Known about the structure:
By secondary structure, this protein is of the alpha+beta class. The protein is 31% helix and 28% strand. The strands form 2 sheets. Strands 1-2-7-5-6 form a 5-stranded mixed sheet. A two-stranded antiparallel sheet has the order 3-4. Helix 2 (61-82) packs across helix 3 (109-124). The radius of gyration is 15 Å and the shape is globular.
Amino acid sequence: MSDAIEDRLKALSIKLPEAAAPAAxxxxxxxxxxxxxxxxxxxxxxxxxxxxxxxxxxxSLEDGQKAARACAINIIAQAKAALGGDLxxxxxxxxxxxxxxxxxxFTEQHLVINGASGLLAEVFGEAGKHSRAAVGMAALPxxxxxxIDAILEVA
Length: 155
């Protein structure tokens, strides 16, 4: 299955980055039994933030979705690091929690987080379909527009 996932990533022109190191006093992931908890991932590509600011103000819905997609790529990179490079060990993406920096009147957080949900389903197939939350926040670390954490079931 690991080869199938790697093939899907390649077909999507996704080259996973090195898993990001924690920016504060926490670990990037924890494995407990058959569960992999991945800390919140910011929308970075090549060490730069993809989107900063607030949806409903200076970040468009499309840019928010791209930011959520970048978070999902970083989640996959953390999973790969946690699992010794073997993404085939992922049996299910159980849940993601999506946090969207947004103005009080912005109500499309669910559409923003679809940028991550869609990618996870594309990469992992049926095992990538998950439960989730999508909530608005006043602010996120480093001014990020989106942050997403995840819980995965692993073999």
